[in-house]
Amino acid sequence: MDKGLHFVFCVIATTLLLRESSQTGTTRNDGAVSKATDSRGPEEALPTLTVTTILEDPYVMVRSAELEGYCIDLLKALAAMLHFSYKVKVVGDGQYGAVSSSGNWTGMIGEILRQEADIAVAPLTVTSAREEVVSFTTPFLQTGIGILLRKDTVSQEMSFFHFLAPFSKETWTGLLFAYVLTCFCLFLVARLSPCEWNEPKNEENHFTFLNSLWFGAGALALQGVTPRPKALSVRVIAAVWWLFTIALLAAYIANFTALLSSGSEQLPIQTFEDLVKQRKLEFGTLDGSSTFYFFKNSKNPIHQMIYEYMDKRRDYVLVKTYQEAVQRVMESNYAFIGESISQDLAAARHCNLIRAPEVIGARGFGIATTQASLWTKKLSIAVLKLRESGDLDNLRNKWWETSCLHKSRERWSPLQPQALGGLFLTLAIGLALGVIAAVVELSNKSRHAAGHVKKSCCSVFTEEMCTRLRIKENTRQSQETSGRANA
Description:
Helices cover 57% and strands 11% of the residues. It contains 21 helices and 12 strands. By secondary structure, the protein is of the alpha/beta class. A 5-stranded mixed sheet has the order 4-1-5-12-6, with helices on both faces.
């Protein structure tokens, strides 16, 4: 009995000891975790930054009660690299940041100065005025100032000579020169070749210069014309000219088709100077944006004219948000002046919009922090690392990729002579071969004739050459001689 009680007591004691050991181990593990967390102390604890931003597609957008976009993804990548947590808030007044009439800063810059936010992650342009009151990191996006237009508002009627547009002026000049030179070579070779003109004094040469011009023009129109070449030398030139015209017509038709489908020639507003000179479209920018102050501070006369126009009509042409600007461009005769990178996205997502070619005022989007902030250099280094690793390019491709962008065509331009350089070279080689073949044919005839008349080959060749090239004078002299004999 005592042994049984002793055994039960031992079992109970062992069970209690094991339970206590298990609870002690869990407590130690929890304590270790808590200690590892607490060992950081106030300075090493995971910091939380208040981030101010602005709603603008595709940088920051609201989807299902959550924020997403390019800047949100950038912020996540920076937080993972620098080990901080963050709380994002949308700027209260919906402004980027400018000096108000009272002398205070508005928008995201104002919130940073009032310490309502630690950093601003948004499409915020780095300017000298903003750099005086806050600090900026290395730009994470490069951009400029462009003009956003609606295609049908800037379309114009085709010019009367629109059919000449597929080739540049230099190409048309080269084509005219090639045509005249080829016809002259046909005329010359037809006179030199004995196979084409055997008896200059008795036969008529059908390849006169006018007939040669007609022959070349017929080939350009893909029409067979007379006279028909008989000599090998003339046929070589004719064949090369036919090949030249076929390739030329193919290039013309292809480029003319691309011109009609692209409609790039229907964009009269190419530069900011064109925008100022026209009277059909109103134009403006975001109120209080860096673009507005760029034109205000610029010494360029064209830029000053743009600023004066916008300042006098600020209640009508300045917009509050980027979305309002895009909507106004789509619905009225309005041109929006703003960041070119944002305009590229608008033109990609709305296929009836287009950005004018000229871009001025190269600038960048940076992250704004308070002056002397310890985060400025850390964020700059992190941005550089993201750029070097290609992560920024991946973010750009992710948020700028649209179906309209895939369907867009490359910008059309007239065909330059360099594109047809090989074609002109082939024609030149063919002309040279034709002339050489004609000279060889005439040399063979002169060598055979020299044996009969017992003269040197060179003298016979020279006489034959002069006879063929001065046939009109010789014919006139022979007619005068025969007239005297008859008299």
